[in-house]
Write a structure and sequence with these properties.
The complex is a heterodimer of chains A (544) and B (236). Chain A is of the alpha+beta class. Helix content of chain A is 34%, strand content 23%. Chain A has 16 helices and 27 strands. In chain B, the strands form two sheets. A five-stranded mixed sheet of chain B has the order 2-1-5-3-4. A two-stranded antiparallel ribbon of chain B has the order 6-7. Classes of the chains: A alpha+beta (544), B alpha+beta (236). The interface between A and B is large, with 53 and 55 residues. Bound molecules: flavin-adenine dinucleotide (FAD), iron/sulfur cluster (2 copies) and FE2/S2 (inorganic) cluster. Residues 34, 61-64, 66-71, 81-83 of chain B line the site of FE2/S2 (inorganic) cluster.
């Protein structure tokens, strides 16, 4: 067996690599671009942990309860228990690596975030992802120097090596391509996927980064690996369109006192505060986005919702949100200190992905997944601040899991094998044409909005059939199959829960649907089944 | 709004560079050089200004909002981020060239691996638990913001790839370590800082106003110099 192969060098990939290195296990850390360019650097508002530094008597048990409730009881309780129990340790570890979390009187302070009544979110202005990444990249460098982490930046994954048939199938490595030289490398060994969300399925319509194309996710799906909860796509309430993408205005804006309003009969109506007196503007994201959708469709309201930050104290701007103000000024030419910002919901996070157990093993032995590409922890709706936590913790658990599974087998430090230059024609075949990207996106966009319905979803499904019947490259086909799995999952879940809202089935239906949606591709056909959620065990469930 | 992109292209590392012109039109005043490059590359049938078919332009991008450093290139003679430069603020013809301090891969893509190599060479990692206090937080935050884009190296008269002087792109992240390292651990770091940066820097501050992240270079250096060069180990 070769080194462990980690694809993706964002928070989850770095965490996995560092934890393997600490155990003396070498890895290849493969990424399309260097870590400084990973989507994780964009994360803004913060990371959750019941550190209880604000005198509110917060506990991991409450963090657990909020996460389960925020995910509308669809997450694996054992995995979530592990996550919330270990959250303080993860944040303290990042602090010891020199992450400049906001401090006051020599203690780390926490802010409010959506779906949580207590202050639980550690942060650094609204650049938390960036500062966490910097600390983690520096720590990874230590292990690069020690010869345990081998970087393959500017490399794309071209293929997943699968050995055996039927029940005996297992993942035994990867083929990667150097995008600077077109050289192919064979990398034998277990694989941990840390390749992030599938933004590229909705190009230009998400808050994420361009290199997260979804191509690799689609390849893994087409290879028959089980995916979970694909229909749950998070629309973040406060985004704005800038050229090429949606720009996020972090939940921290509302955590620090920002208020949403719409003009009703010409007057500002703070609808969230009126409808949800307890959490108000800080209800979970699915609720806020849906309410924004409803109010902006009312006849007595103007369609535009605004985020009002004009009441925030000067000190908050200066100490906690100076970077956010600069960004809004630069891209929108609006000074949020003096004028409200027009916002609308935009695609921000994928709760679904490679289905993994609490030990981050996928359905294919030898293949693990962590971070946003995996389906774990967030159920039907992710709470703000839980994603970076899930990526860091998930990377750690995946590393521990590989370590345990590989015990006894020798993971040696063989270099990947050079397979020579990728043939030109082969490169062409693997292309994804921009026009096909656009076609897939427009079909999916039509069906997978905030409010969904049978006829619209069926029409999207039909559109996908037509697309699949056309002349596609293998990569384009994989992407269309993944798209079809998302739509099929949304069609099959005939209820409303979290980020999946059906106008034709507006109620939650626990008897039938408090289950994981499992999608699997067999010879081009897609099966959807609903699988019971694991029972809560008394240990914290992370032992493989 | 109509613009001409005058792009210095190269088919591969070895091939000779040539200039190619592209016409780009948009009604959206907020679009940037990055938007133009993206849309040109998305065209199924890309043609240059004279109507000849052209292969897609190779360049790197990721965040499209000035946060990842991927899209650094020389725009009208100045190293900048393509996603930071609004077309509306440019003249009719916009000249795009790859950063000159790094080997070109093709077109506007350069290989910045040397930056990572330099950070390894100056041993940019904590050797001990960070000593976090209120006081160091601001400096550590500022230093953590470096995008590793390479713009500061582009304008630096003393930096060249492969040389022992590692430039501002390493001095900035290094200032985080100097601020956070426990006092007892600072000696070795100080030696590396002095040897690989301080002694080689002409202090002309040609790099001062170039950082697209807006990092306050002066402030961080004053801090680092105080710790590493003037050996104020006791009182950062
Ligand atoms: C604007 C924004 C703000 C956010 N704010 C917060 C927040 O405040 N709190 C929070 O908890 N979460 C937040 N999130 C979510 C969170 O940042 C992400 O979910 C998390 O960082 C994802 O980390 P990751 O390790 O899964 O992957 P990413 O950081 O997305 O990294 C993916 C990696 O995979 C590589 N890759 C992709 N495809 C391939 C391929 N085919 N071959 C090789 N490499 C490949 C990429 O190069 C990259 O290195 C935010 C997200 C965004 C977009
Ligand atoms: S001050 Fe001058 S020599 Fe020193 S890093 Fe900046 S540009 Fe280079
Ligand atoms: S200091 Fe500024 S210009 Fe230099 S690499 Fe960092 S972000 Fe770029
Ligand atoms: S694309 Fe990230 S800085 Fe321009």
């Amino acid at each position: 067996m070769g080194r462990v192969n980690i694809v993706g060098a964002g928070l989850s990939g770095l965490s996995a690599a560092i934890h393997l290195a600490k155990a003396g296990i070498p890895c290849n850390l493969i990424s399309a671009l260097p870590s400084e360019r990973a989507q994780s650097v964009l994360a803004e508002g913060g990371i959750n942990a019941a550190l209880d530094t604000m005198g509110e008597h917060d506990t991991p048990a409450e963090h657990f309860a909020d996460t389960m409730k925020g995910g509308v009881d669809l997450a694996d309780p054992n995995a979530v228990a592990g996550l919330t129990e270990h959250a303080p340790e993860i944040v303290r570890w990042m602090f010891s690596l020199g992450t400049p979390f906001q401090m006051e009187e020599e203690r780390l302070i926490l802010r409010n975030f959506g779906g949580q009544k207590k202050k639980r979110t550690a942060y650094s202005k609204s650049s938390t992802g960036k500062v966490l990444m910097t600390a983690l990249i520096d720590e990874a460098r230590r292990w690069e120097d020690a010869g345990l982490i081998h970087r393959f930046s500017h490399h794309l994954t071209e293929d997943l090596t699968i050995e055996g048939e039927g029940e005996d199938r297992c993942c035994s490595g990867l083929v990667i391509r150097d995008t600077y030289t077109s050289r192919l490398l064979n990398c034998p060994g277990p694989v941990i996927l840390c390749s992030g969300g599938m933004n590229g399925i909705f190009p230009g319509l998400t808050t994420g980064t361009v290199p997260n194309t979804g191509n690799l996710t689609a390849l893994v799906f087409a290879k028959g690996v089980e995916f979970g909860n694909l229909e749950f796509i998070q629309y973040h309430p406060t985004t704005v369109g800038i050229p090429g993408k949606r720009m996020l205005i972090s939940e921290a804006a509302r955590g620090e006192g920002g208020r949403l309003f719409i003009l009703r009969d010409g007057k500002p109506w703070y609808f969230m505060e009126e409808k949800y007196p307890e959490l108000g503007n800080l209800m979970p994201r699915d609720v806020v986005s849906r309410e924004m959708f409803f109010v902006s469709h009312r006849p007595d309201c103007e369609p535009q919702v605004y985020l009002d930050l004009t009441g925030l104290p000067a000190a908050t701007w200066e100490k906690k949100l100076s970077d956010m103000r600069e960004e809004i000024l630069h891209y929108l030419s609006i000074d949020p200190v003096t004028a409200p910002v027009p916002v609308s919901p935009g695609i921000h996070f994928f709760m679904g992905g490679v289905l993994v157990d609490a030990a981050h093993r996928s359905s294919l032995p030898g293949l693990y997944a962590a971070g946003e590409c995996a389906c774990q922890y967030h159920g039907a709706n992710r709470l703000g601040g839980n994603s970076m936590l899930g990526a860091l913790y998930g990377g750690k658990v995946a590393a521990e899991s590989v370590t345990l599974t590989c015990k006894g087998e020798s993971l040696h430090s063989d270099e990947p094998v050079d397979l020579g230059l990728a043939p030109t024609q082969w490169r062409e075949e693997r292309m994804v044409a921009p026009v096909q990207v656009e076609r897939l996106c427009s079909v999916l966009w039509e069906g997978l909005g905030i409010a969904r319905e049978e006829t619209v979803l069926s029409s999207a499904a039909k559109g996908l059939e037509e697309l699949l019947a056309g002349d596609l490259t293998p990569w384009e086909r994989n992407r269309a199959l993944l798209g079809k799995a998302i739509v099929s999952s949304a069609l099959a879940r005939r209820e409303s829960r979290g980020a999946h809202y059906r106008t034709d089935f507006p109620q939650r239906d626990d008897a039938q649907f408090q289950k994981t949606t499992v999608a699997v591709c067999r010879d081009g056909a897609i099966d959807i089944v609903f699988r019971p959620i694991p029972e809560r065990r008394t240990d914290n469930g992370t032992n493989p | 709004m109509e613009r001409i992109l005058d792009i210095l292209r190269r088919d591969s590392r070895e091939s000779t560079p040539y200039r190619q012109f592209f016409h780009y039109e948009t009604a959206d005043e907020t679009e940037t050089v990055a938007t133009a490059l993206m849309k040109l590359c998305d065209a199924s049938d890309l043609r240059d200004l004279s109507g000849e078919p052209a292969r897609p332009i190779l360049w790197e991008c990721s965040c499209l909002q000035k946060k990842c450093g991927a899209c650094a290139m020389v725009i009208d003679g100045i190293p900048r981020l393509a996603c930071d430069v609004k077309l509306a603020d440019c003249k009719e013809t916009i000249r795009l060239e790859p950063l000159r301090k790094f080997p070109v891969v093709a077109d506007l893509t350069v290989d910045r691996t040397v930056m990572q190599d330099n950070l390894r060479a100056i041993r940019l990692w904590l050797t001990d638990q960070a000593a976090m206090r209120d006081k160091v937080m601001d400096a550590a935050y500022e230093a953590s913001r470096c995008l590793q884009c390479g713009c500061c190296l582009e304008v630096c008269p003393n930096f060249y790839a492969g040389g022992s002087f590692t430039g501002m792109a390493s001095a900035i992240p290094f200032s985080r370590l100097l601020a956070e390292l426990p006092v007892s651990q600072r000696k070795e770091a100080a030696k590396l800082y002095t040897g690989r940066f301080y002694n080689g820097c002409g202090k002309s501050l040609a790099c001062r106003n170039i950082c697209p992240a807006g990092i306050d270079v002066d402030d961080l250096l004053v801090n680092s110099n105080a710790i590493a060069v003037w050996k104020r180990f006791g009182k950062p």
